[in-house]
């Protein structure tokens, strides 16, 4: 046995020695200096080619001391060293490394300035260096980085040194985020990086230029240069004058389930047009958010509001793209986006979109309220059909007036209509008194809304460095007209029954405009004075008229004066600010002082009363930035919303009545944020930490009164000592074991602490709520052939009450999510996702465990894999449920909503890319949760 071990060790030693000799590599070294000043040449490019066919072997950049070392060179082959630097004559030297002499010292090489010729003029095309540094720009020669014929720009960027791309396509260069990508110096469909990286073929690119984003630096003059984002400019081999790209898909499931949609982008010279449309009844978005931003063109016309739910449902600028709301949804939409660049720096954008949705909802809700030794249990069943449609038209005008000033104007108009028919059955019982009430509530709502908003920005830089002026203006107008019919039968035990049959007519109009002026003046090299003024004007109208049904004629024409009121409010908000900013290397300190005058004028038209309120505040603020740390503090003043001061009760649900409070005062909130962000590109390590919170005085809380028959009435009141603190931490580390296999792991937590004030039946208590949720993430990738990711989350929510009149509460939850993608054999993609959720405590009839397992198989065909045929199964186990459990105030709520269950789907997708003879179609990587279309 011992002899076998010795023989094995000897064999391994001999093999290692042979391998070392076989794989032995050589290196060259030297130093570069300026021929006149003898100063070292930093960031000069030292490239090594094979002398016979000028194929690039490798390259390096010289250090600050002018030294260079190029290792990993082949032996016994004639090589050529090319040393280049912008504005200097090219230096060439041929050499051969051997086993006996694997190293070559080129000594000190003097670089001679050459004013007569540019770099490209004195270099043979085949010898062009892979990287050239020109002042503040890094330029990569695309031909030096080989890609597959069907590769996209994204694949080319991954091969560039110092360039990193994450799974979502976000780009960093040497740790700095890339803000925009230009094509031949111009925006490409709005400048979003993914528009170019995931659509343009790599073989069209001649050079990739990387430089600091000067626009970001102009808009944030206090920002350290090291923190400024990057701009990538793609220089094409020959200018693309026209082309089109996008994708279309259609799918059919068993039963009546289906999906269809497409996005097509066309461009000719400086004109760019995007057209999109979709329709499905699968309770999901027709497109992902990144595709709406980029392919759909929303980045060009502006994004005012975004809502994304956990299932991928998407709402942008008030328009649903599917999967929003509750229940099972059918959604459809169509729209276009047009962008044109004129001469003299003028760009005009136009956008229109129409969206329509229908939601069918069946909901079971169980709420337990803990009142001393009594538990109040309310159980409700809701059946509802919601319909909504909306039109939105938007414009965008950008004008680069000159090299020091620019202006941008973005107006938009939205028109919408919503209808709803709802039946809710509620039963309330007491652990002491037994059944308290039962309610059958039939509601019908028809509402129309109109919205207009615009933003206007003007920015001016002066000749004096650091002096700047900017102006911002916004206007928002929203109107709502709603008719709500309530037909309610309430039964109270043992006293009897009551009915409600009424129409609530609501007219609401909100108008606001805000203007901000800011001026910066450098006092010294490190000290800048900032002055600002902001004027905000609000005008709100809330007119509520309630009519009882006239049994004689069947019309709703009998006014109910106790439930009718007309409230109007105007508000002026003047804010004068001053501040000093001090900068030293990577340290930035800003101190501000704000003087706020707030005037609120409330007019109760129906009763002929006025309530005018005037407030003055001195509000300090500050910000400290040092390397990766940032600490900020500010004070905000928030007046109560008009709905909170409306004195008329909302009895839409007679068991839960909401009242307003005209005596509410503005809430004063002290806010702070501390965050840390670190991206160590060389070690592929990302660390993020955040701590923030606020302490509010005159915060708005809702007092609650619960009557003996179970009717609950709430009203907002002011309370001091309202706290909210939030912290999170996350790290992610990637390990590359070799060129084909990588492993990543991450961990973190979310912790939320709130201290609120609780008033129930005159019993008062502060309640502390702690929600702690740690999580783990891991994933592997083998040459993009096999990808596997897993996430685990465990959450605990605890509520502690200072008063013994209330019972402490605890809610626990767990979830695990995993996905597997296998791209074997060639042309086939196998996918599987599993989302498993578990709630340890739920009410009777509410499912504790939910497992959603999806699976799919995609076949790639046609030229360049432009065609994709996918067979998928949604909810393989047929166990999908929408179940939620949460605690608030003194109650725990379990909610279960209907959702789609198992179906089988066959979907065909066609990728469109047409760039003439110069470019070939490319499908990119197919499969995984980051793909355009979900299960």
From TrEMBL:
Residues 460-756, 761-910 form the Outer membrane protein beta-barrel domain. Residues 1-19 form the signal peptide. Keywords: Receptor, Signal. The keyword Signal applies. Transmembrane segments: none annotated. It holds the Pfam family OMP_b-brl_3. InterPro entries: CarboxyPept-like_regulatory (IPR008969), OMP_b-brl_3 (IPR041700). The keyword Signal applies. This is TonB-dependent receptor. It comes from Sediminibacterium sp. KACHI17.
